[in-house]
C-alpha cells in the first residue's frame, strides 16, 4: 500500500471533492472567453489560465492602470453589471466551481453569479480583448445578442465573494446540476476583478453517435475520462495526463514528490527494474468502458525525474460496484478486482504498447497507473473500442 493512501481526502472536505475532477474551462482544455462587457484593466482570457497560478507584480503597470493577472473591469459609472461568456473546452457535467480572487483586494468583485447553458449551435464568436467591451461589428453584435437571449440556468445565485488574500481567495461552490453544459456566463456585480475561474467536472460525450468499430482514447479528458484518486500529487495532478495533445511542460503532467523510503544504495533486478519498496498510483475512470488495444505512456519533459518503471492494472466495475468504491472520490479500493493490463516496464520516454504487449483482452472501466518508486508522467492514452456496457450516469 502506498505511503499516503488517500492524501487528497485528508486535506479536502467532502463537499469539495469536486476539486479532483477536470477543469473543463481551462485554456489547455480548449476553453475560451467569447465575450466580455469590459476588459479595461485585464482581459477575461486570464480567467482560464491554468499553467500559471495567479501572480502579483508590484512594479507592473500598463497604459490602462495597474497590471493584474485576472479579469478586471473599470469602476462602473453607468447602470448595469459586468459579465463574460465562457465556452467550455470540454462540454460536460459540472460538479463545482472555484471563483478565485487572488491578489484582487481593493478591487475584487464584491458579488458574482454563474449561469449555464447548453448551446451546441452557439455562434462561433471570438472577440479580441478590446478595452471598450463593445462588439466590433454588426454580425458580432448580433451573435452576442443571440447568446444573451438564450435561456441560462442559474448555477450560483448572486453571492458575496471574499477578497484575494491568500487565506480567503478561493470561493468554492459545489454544483448539483445534472445537465450537460457548453457555456457559462460569469456575472460580476457590479464590476471589479476575478483572477481565475475553475470549472470542475467530467466531460460528456455522445457515444451513440460513434461507429462501434472506431478506436479512440477512452481515458481522454475530451472523451469523459476522469481521475478518481491517487496516492500523491505533490507537483502535478494525475488529471493532467489525460489532457489534449502532448504536454506543454512539466507542470502539465502528473508528478509526485520524491519518496522518502527509497534505499540509500539502489539495486536493480535481472530486468533492470529498480528494487524499491514503494510506489505511487493514480486511478482513472474511462469515459466509456471498453477493450483496450493500444497504450501510450509519455514521460515528456520529465528528464531527471521520470519513474523507473510503470505498470497498469485495470478492472471492470458494474455501476453498482462503482457506487460502492466511488462516492464522489475513490473511497475504498476494489483490491482483488485489479488485473494486470501492462506488466512493469521501464518508463523514460514516449512508449507505445500494442495488443501483443497487453495482458488483458476483456472490457475495462477503470485503470490504475502504478509508477515506481515515484516521478512524473506527462500523458497516458488508452486506445480501444467502447463496449455496449455503460457507466452509471452518476459519479
Ligand atoms: N490600484 C488598482 O489596482 N486600481 C485599479 N485597478 C487597476 N488595475 O489599476 C482600481 O481601482 O480598480
TrEMBL record:
Domain Allantoicase: 30-202, 224-386
UniProt cross-references to InterPro entries, sorted A to Z: Allantoicase, Allantoicase_dom, Galactose-bd-like_sf
SUPFAM superfamilies xrefs: Galactose-binding domain-like (SSF49785)
GO MF annotations, alphabetized: allantoicase activity
Pfam family, one: Allantoicase
Gene Ontology process terms (BP): allantoin catabolic process
Superkingdom assignment: Eukaryota
Gene3D superfamilies attached to this UniProt entry: Galactose-binding domain-like
NCBIfam families: allantoicase (TIGR02961)
Annotated PANTHER family: ALLANTOICASE (PTHR12045), INACTIVE ALLANTOICASE-RELATED (PTHR12045:SF3)
Xref: HAMAP family: Allantoicase (MF_00813)
Family the UniProt entry places it in: Belongs to the allantoicase family.
Protein name: Allantoate amidinohydrolase
Source species taxonomy: Eukaryota, Metazoa, Chordata, Craniata, Vertebrata
Name of the gene encoding the protein in the UniProt record: ALLC
Amino acid at each position: 500500500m502506498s505511503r499516503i493512501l488517500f492524501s487528497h481526502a485528508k486535506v479536502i472536505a467532502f463537499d469539495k471533492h469536486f476539486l479532483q475532477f477536470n477543469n473543463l474551462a481551462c485554456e489547455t482544455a480548449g476553453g475560451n472567453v467569447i465575450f466580455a462587457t469590459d476588459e479595461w484593466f485585464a482581459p477575461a482570457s486570464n480567467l482560464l489560465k491554468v499553467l500559471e497560478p495567479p501572480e502579483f507584480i508590484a512594479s507592473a503597470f500598463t497604459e490602462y492602470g495597474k497590471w493584474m493577472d485576472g479579469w478586471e473591469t473599470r469602476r462602473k459609472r453607468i447602470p448595469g453589471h459586468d459579465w463574460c461568456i465562457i465556452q467550455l473546452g470540454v462540454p460536460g457535467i459540472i460538479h463545482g466551481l472555484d471563483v478565485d480572487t487572488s491578489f484582487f483586494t481593493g478591487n475584487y468583485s464584491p458579488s458574482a453569479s454563474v449561469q449555464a447553458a447548453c448551446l451546441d449551435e452557439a455562434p462561433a464568436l471570438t472577440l479580441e480583448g478590446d478595452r471598450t467591451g463593445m462588439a466590433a461589428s454588426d454580425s458580432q453584435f448580433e451573435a452576442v445578442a443571440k447568446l444573451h437571449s438564450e435561456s441560462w440556468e442559474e448555477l450560483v445565485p448572486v453571492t458575496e465573494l471574499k477578497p484575494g488574500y491568500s487565506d480567503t481567495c478561493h470561493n468554492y461552490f459545489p454544483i448539483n446540476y445534472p445537465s450537460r453544459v457548453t457555456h457559462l456566463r460569469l456575472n460580476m456585480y457590479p464590476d471589479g476583478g476575478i483572477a481565475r475561474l475553475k470549472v470542475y467536472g467530467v466531460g460528456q460525450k455522445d457515444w451513440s453517435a460513434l461507429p462501434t468499430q472506431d478506436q479512440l482514447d477512452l481515458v481522454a479528458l475530451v472523451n469523459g475520462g476522469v481521475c478518481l484518486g491517487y496516492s500523491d500529487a505533490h507537483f502535478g495532478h494525475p488529471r493532467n495526463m489525460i489532457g489534449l495533445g502532448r504536454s506543454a511542460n512539466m507542470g502539465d503532467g502528473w508528478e509526485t514528490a520524491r519518496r522518502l523510503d527509497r534505499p540509500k544504495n539502489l539495486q536493480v533486478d535481472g530486468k533492470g527494474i529498480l528494487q524499491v519498496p514503494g510506489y505511487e498510483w493514480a486511478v482513472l475512470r474511462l469515459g466509456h468502458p471498453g477493450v483496450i488495444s493500444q497504450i501510450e505512456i509519455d514521460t515528456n519533459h520529465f528528464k531527471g525525474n521520470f519513474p523507473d518503471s510503470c505498470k497498469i492494472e485495470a478492472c471492470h466495475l458494474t455501476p453498482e460496484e462503482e457506487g460502492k468504491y466511488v462516492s464522489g472520490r475513490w473511497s475504498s479500493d476494489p483490491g482483488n478486482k485489479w488485473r494486470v493490463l501492462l506488466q512493469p516496464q521501464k518508463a523514460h520516454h514516449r512508449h507505445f504498447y500494442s495488443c501483443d504487449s497487453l495482458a488483458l483482452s476483456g472490457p475495462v472501466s477503470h485503470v490504475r497507473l502504478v509508477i515506481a518508486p515515484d516521478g512524473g508522467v506527462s500523458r497516458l492514452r488508452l486506445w480501444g473500442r467502447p463496449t455496449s456496457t455503460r457507466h452509471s450516469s452518476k459519479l
